[in-house]
Structure formats: C-alpha cells, structure tokens
Amino acid sequence: MKKSFILLALAIGGVCFTAQAQNNDDVVPNKHFINQHLKAEKGDVTTEFGLAGGLNNADFKLNEGGAGLLRGRYFVKDDLALRLGFSLGLSHDKNNIYGGPSNNLVGTDKTNNTNFLLNLGIEKHFAGTANLSPYVGGDLLFGISGKKQTLDNTDGNDYLADFSSEVKGPGAVSFGIRGVIGADYYIAKHVYLGAEAGLGFLYSHEGKTKVNTTFAGHSTSTTIKSNGDSYELNPSVITGIRIGFVF
C-alpha cells in the first residue's frame, strides 16, 4: 500500500510540473521573443503584394494600384525601416499594314513606351501587440515616362509608299512627397497581413513632342509645345489588404 501511495504522489507531481511548464509557455511573450519569432527585426528585409478576391479566390497584385510597384523594406532597427519601391515598364508594339497592287507590300507601325517610378521612404514602428505592428512614415516619389512611334511606308492606317515618320513624346517627369500610416498584423512567424493609407502631393510636367516626316524625299520637322503641368494633393489607400513576408 505504501508503495502505491508513493507512485501516485510521483504521478501527481509529474502532472503538476507539466501543467506549470505549459503555463509558463503561455505567458505573453516579451519584446525579444516577439522579434525573434513573429515580427521583423533589425537586419530583416520584407516584401509584399496586394491581396484581392478574398481567401477563397485570392489574386496577388503589385502595390500602388496601376503603378505596379515592387516594394520592400529594410529594418535598420527593430522599430525603424527604410522603404524602397520601383517599377520599370517597357512595351513594344509592331503592326504590319499591307498594300500595293497585289497586297504584297508591307508598311510598319512601331510604338515604344517606357515608364519608371521610384519610391524612397522611411517608417517608424510602434510597440502594438504581440501580433500587431502599427507605423507612420513618409515617402519621396519620382517618375519618368516616354513614348516613341515610328511609321515606315504607312500613315498608320493605310499602306503609303515612300512615307516615313518618327514621333517622340510627349514624355513626362513627376515627383512628389507623402505621409503614410499603416499596420502589419502577423498571422504566423514572419508572415503578415497589412493595410496602408497616405496623404500626398504629386507634381507632373509634360514635355514637348517632336515630329519628323519624310515623303517622296522631302523631309519636315515639327515641335509641339508642352501641354503644361499638373499637381494634386489627396488622401488615398496606397495598398488595400496586402500580404507580406520577412526574410
């Protein structure tokens, strides 16, 4: 009987020790634990994508809506990150336009477009909770775009022998500044959902357009003046729901 009581006491002691150990693990983690196991910390890099369509029909999109920015952050401190985003778009279209007596002669219409956007910024993170990391920040924006169309043996609609044209522009240069506010919510280790909005000022200047044409050996050049400048100051949702990863 004495032996049975000793075994029972040992069993109860083991259960109590296990329960106590589990309770200690359930204690709200401190800042160091959070940084090591959930949130980004000094030296980490993050990247993110917009998330649309809901969880059952998810579709990943680049940031900044139509701008399509590839964006990332580098944490110089646990609570301070540098922001970098850029977008480079190049497109080339070529259309063949046929004509002549047997429709066997060809003219070409070529169009090239270039778009570049750069985003540099900084953001300050606050304590939040074990999963939530709210922040404020600011961005500098710079963009440039260009366009060129070349016609050879066509006016763009019909085949036209001995006709050529080159149209450069109008290009545009833009720059701006904005303040942002947002939050990251970590759903797993180094994986987060977030949202961000901002208030920004953007200025854009449209350049000149140069047109060179040649027809039957006779060449002309024309310069079309700029349409002017534009600017806007408005609040916006920079990225709706986004999903991000820490490396």
List the helices and strands and how they pair.
Layout: H1 2-25, H2 31-37, E1 45-52, E2 59-61, E3 70-77, E4 80-99, E5 105-125, E6 132-154, E7 159-168, E8 172-188, E9 191-206, E10 209-215, E11 218-224, E12 228-246
Antiparallel strand pairs: 1-2, 1-3, 1-12, 3-4, 4-5, 5-6, 6-7, 6-8, 7-10, 8-9, 9-12, 10-11
Detailed description of the structure:
The structure is a single chain. With 247 residues, this protein is mainly beta. It has one domain: Porin. The chain has two helices and twelve strands. The chain has an eight-stranded antiparallel barrel with strand order 1-3-4-5-6-8-9-12. Mean pLDDT is 83; it is low at 1-34.
Looking at this protein, list some descriptive labels.
single chain; 247 residues; Porin; 8-stranded antiparallel barrel; disordered N terminus
Summarize the structure in short.
The protein is 13% helix and 64% strand.
Strand order of the largest sheet: 1-3-4-5-6-8-9-12
Quaternary state reads single chain
Intertermini distance? 60 Å
Low-confidence stretches: 1-34
CATH class: Mainly Beta
